[in-house]
Known about the structure:
Helix content: 10-25%
Strand content: 5-15%
Largest sheet: 7 strands, mixed
Shape: globular
Amino acid sequence: MRHIQTRAVVVGLLILVGACTNSDVRVTAPEATDLSTQLEGTTAPSAVTEISTTTEATTTELATTTTEPFPDGLRPLVDGHNRIDEQRINLIFVRHNFPDDFDWVTYARQLLTWDGPVIVGPLGPVEDPKDGFDLTYGPFSIEPFRSTRDAFNVWYYDEPTPEPATWGTLGEQFPVDIDNSLIIALAWQWPYSASAGVPDFVPPELPAAGVDVFDGVILPVWGSEADATDATLAHELSHAVFGLADKYVFDQKGPDDRTNFTFYPACAADRDEAEEFFGDQVGEVPAAFEQYLAERRASGIDFGEWAIPEEELRQMITVDYVPDGCFGPEGAGRRSTLGGLMYNEYELPVLGAVNLRWAERVLEAWLA
Length: 368
């Protein structure tokens, strides 16, 4: 189960909002190779070629923009990207209880998938698509993170940190004083699920520009083949940055003490409320989904007979009045998609159009 803390709905009340820990794609310490590098010399759809070119150009341009000195104790996780003189969200990776021989910084960098999705095999990233069984997607291979890298600085703090709280991260225990921080605690053999502290605004409320409203994420790591995966981080950051709810169906009470509850924009108590929330988007499929399909086709991976057919994936991400709400028993409520990142992240690393529109609005408001 995955948990998020809801601080702004009821002051001082900690709410567990479920999700799952994903162990299907495992990433280990060797350096990851991005998709555009691995596909050199192959024939790829034009969409993927354009994506790779854009990413490459963006990375080159960013390499000249770093501002020093860095805040005390912090080091850039992506060379040449951070700008401390700009209004950005500071993602800060920290480690808890790691063995000395584990290269946790490389692992943290791999989780980002900064240069695009990475081909992985049973033991981690691989160079030859014939040795791979899947593409792994971290937050910066998924929209809206992918196209808004300049909204974020990405740091690591290379000193052991205190034990994260079971509901959030380090809070006031973190030794570096920096505004707009969102701490990502990689916790070695953490006995709880991945978790996120939701921001201090409640959708449909938007954050004010540049306000310090973020908390953090805990990602458990178990051994060299860690269960804390890239897409899990993307899922948790979608809670922590955008205030998005999980889209799970089970008999559990929400923060208003109802088994089936409303959570804007993608979770509605009934059909009428669903029409109000996302009726104008019914039938939409985000462009990021087409990009995802193009990257799968171009990867050269044999996904095998168990691969979900593309049309089934499309049905999972198409906006509709899907029976069963986000927090209720079967047959109650409505949600905006059958699947997607906030539901089955290990199969479909794409935010549905409803959640994506909201996430883009949050970033636009915060960056204004």
